[in-house]
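INFO  loader      accepted 1 record
INFO  loader      residues=337
INFO  predictor   begin
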Amino acid sequence: MSVREFLEQQEHFRLDPKAAFSDRSRGRPIPEAPREDDVRTCYQRDADKIVHSKSFRRLMHKTQVFLQPEGDHYRTRMTHTIEVSRIARTIARALRMNEDLTEAIALGHDLGHTPFGHAGEAALSEVMDKPFRHNEQSLRVVDLLEKDGEGLNLSYEVRMGILGHTGEYIPETIEGQIVRRSDQIAYVNHDIDDAMRAGILTNADIPREISRVLGHTHKDRINTLVCDIIVNSREAGMLCMSHEVEKALRDLRSFMFANVYRNPVAKSQEKKARDMLHRLFEYYVRHPEALPEDFHPQLSFDGMERTVCDYIAGMTDKYAVDKYAELFIPAGWNVRG
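INFO  predictor   done
INFO  writer      dumping tokens
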């Protein structure tokens, strides 16, 4: 028996019957025969594929809420992803769900995020004249864009978990639903932390009723939400929260939208970011020869606008600024006599 087979067998002893078992995966878009010497289950392999991808590495230079903040301690998409992964694994372990599947979904859930956060998402929605949704783009990244058009060929359960981490589609697996909840828990809490660091919020600004239910500190809020999910899900046999805590989380998200996500101080640079991406899009549509060579084959089957959209969506904040400067801002020069 190989190590992989042993691990697959052990899942049936350790995990809840409702968990997603590795040896029962619905498979990959392109079948891959398991190697006899492989020490990883299919979901462990998927997590490794994501971590070693280019799009995952770019997350460290993509904005979470505050655009290109000055300071080392503001969240990026990378740190957000790690926080989601840790919260999700804690819940999955306590509920005896498949931690490896949970981790793979969490690691890949934000690969499709644009530069400049939701400002970039709004800009690409405007130029494409239809909604640009980062969860759909994340699936597109792992299916089509990674590895020069080959994609990562991930398992069905990972792919659908990535798609369903936000939006209307709810993942079939409990592991995917755990990541969906963990994403909400992570971002609403670390965005409070970043907003306080930026001087936009103080603890006293958070409504008393929310703090009474969830707690008064970053640590207490996360602990309350995670423990509430675990306790109530174990009792109900499905992923759920108590009515009181779920309402407090919903109210906290509403508070954050009103006071941070739409705050004129936090959003002061968003119009510039949107305008920058508009101009980059228009330039590359007019000059497709300026696209990197690895995007040229895509033009023949996806068309000009979709290919340019994919290129810009994959940019980091800094890369987008540098490209804009290269294309639209005169460079300094000197005359040598």
